[in-house]
Amino acid sequence: MKKALIIVDVQNDFCEGGALAVPEANSIIPYINLLLEENQYDEIILTQDWHPANHKSFASNNGKNVGETITLNGGSQFMWPDHCVQGTFGAEFHKDLNRDKVTHIIQKGKNVEIDSYSGFQDNNHFVKTGLEDYLKYHDIQLVEIVGLALDYCVKFTAIDAFNAGFITCLHFNGTKAVNVKPDSARNTIYDLVEKGITILA
């Protein structure tokens, strides 16, 4: 069975000192590097938030405060601080992440009008990123997922992987949550297990 590791958004803005830092984000990087060292993957894929500066998920572009919610293109959109702007240091992958074996990079969130938490498609399910086609072209049957953040981009990437027909596993020690709400991490894990996704502790 061919398997892939999907490493979600391990970028400077989501790590310590970043514009949208996930608590304890840096602690998952050694774990991910160990997976890369000790396991044999047929494909290793990075996803990368890659927003234009005028992206409408940014509070600053809507005259809103971070944490507010607006309706955007018929969907609910949480207002984030500016982050992972194309071509900036914040959008770069963290220097400590071992990228020697990476086979493919998927950039997402490039459309000004629609956010894209999942590595597979935008939040409104209008446009796919090409990740599903890439995995199927390479005969991948099983995907393991790590990265940032558990309760947003990792969650929706895992759900979309499962829905696309891949056996889907999440490494609990390879992810951390934003925890906009206190129980967000715990609720996300319950939600993923309920859907049929395996949690590897």
Describe this entry's structure for a reader:
Pathway: Cofactor biosynthesis; nicotinate biosynthesis; nicotinate from nicotinamide: step 1/1. Belongs to the isochorismatase family. Its EC number is 3.5.1.19. The structure is a single chain. The chain has 201 residues and is of the alpha/beta class. It has a single domain (3-49, 93-199), classed as 3-Layer(aba) Sandwich (Rossmann fold). Helices cover 21% and strands 24% of the residues. It contains four helices and eight strands; from the N terminus they run βαββββαβαβαβ. The protein has helices at 29-38, 131-137, 150-163, 184-195; strands spanning 2-8, 43-49, 69-72, 75-78, 104-108, 140-148, 167-176, 198-200. Strands 5-2-1-6-7-8 form a six-stranded parallel β-sheet. The protein has a two-stranded antiparallel ribbon with strand order 3-4. β3 (69-72) and β4 form a beta hairpin. It starts with a strand and ends with a strand. The model has no long low-confidence stretch (mean pLDDT 97).
Q: What's the quick description here?
A:
The protein is an alpha/beta fold and about 200 residues long.
Feature tags:
single chain; 201 residues; alpha/beta; Rossmann fold; 21% helix; hydrolase; Nicotinamidase
**How many angstroms separate the termini?**
21 Å
Gyration radius, in Å: 16 Å
Q: How are the strands of the biggest sheet laid out side by side?
A: 5-2-1-6-7-8
* Major β-sheet annotation: 6 strands, parallel
In the residues, how many domains can be counted? Answer: 1
What is the helix/strand order?
A: EHEEEEHEHEHE
